[in-house]
Structures are given as C-alpha cells and as structure tokens.
Amino acid sequence: MKAEYVNPFIEAVYxxxxxxxxxxxxxxxxxxxxxxxQPRDITALIGFSGPARGMAALSFPVTxxxxxxxxxxxxxxxxxxESVMDFVAELVNAVAxxxxxxxxxxxxxxxxxxxxxxxxxxxxxxxxxQSHWLDxxxxxxxxxFRLRVTLEIADLPQPQARA
Length: 163
Hints:
Number of helices: 3
Number of domains: 1
Strand content: 25-35%
Largest sheet: 8 strands, antiparallel
CATH architecture: 3-Layer(aba) Sandwich
Distance between the termini: 36 Å
Structural class: alpha+beta
CATH superfamily: CheC-like
Helix content: 25-40%
C-alpha cells in the first residue's frame, strides 16, 4: 500500500479532531497487518468502490467515544446510545470524505458506501485474504483510538493522444 494513498486518511483524522473536537491527536507507530485484528468496543467501517477499492475503519474504546460526544455536546455523555453510534459513523464518513477529495486530485476516484458501526468485544471484521491493513494508533486527550485502512487503486487508463 502506497503512502500517498494512506496519508490523506491520516491527515483527515488530524483535521477532524482539531476542528470538530478541538483536540490534538498524536500518531503512534504505523504497522501493517493482514487482518482487522482485535476490535475495540466501537468500530465504524466504510467501504470504497470504483478504481479505488477497500475499506477504512475507526475503532474506539467506549470511554473515548463517550468523551468525544461529551465534548461535542458540551454535557457529559455516560451511555452509548444511538447518538454516540451516529457520531462515530459520521467521523468515519468525514475521514473517508476528506481522503476521497484529496485522492480524487491524483486521479483516483472513489465511491463511498454508507458507514457501518459495530459494537462489542466479540466480533471479527474479515476482508479478502490478499488485503493488508495499515494500522495507525492515535492518542488524544479524549482517549486512544485506531485508524485502519486497506486500499487498492487500479491502474487508471492513460488518455490517448489524438493524431
């Protein structure tokens, strides 16, 4: 997986946490894994199709998700309810949307699916066996979380010169 394909997702995380949550995030050491791995308590996934195919996931411990929603609402949120799940879905949607716009400038159009949110500690996210996930851990004042991206971009046809 090429860095120029993944950097827009990482940049989107920095941008969103800074603007929406008014907090700074610090990226941990990047890793490449072949499976989604141990999920956190709440994971939002969004798929890509078209010449760029793959998936992005944001995974949060419940405490981090509650802290984020509390920050946005301005009041303490203590229970994972529909609004918390919707907020997490919107975060992954926004990260993917920002990355999509940046990747489109390089000629790699991406169609986004609707985000899906899963919750719990006993679930697995499987993706085709040839896929590799870039695992990006983050730390923030609101708590830790992870971004994972798997992405393939097909060779785009080059415009043919006219005679």
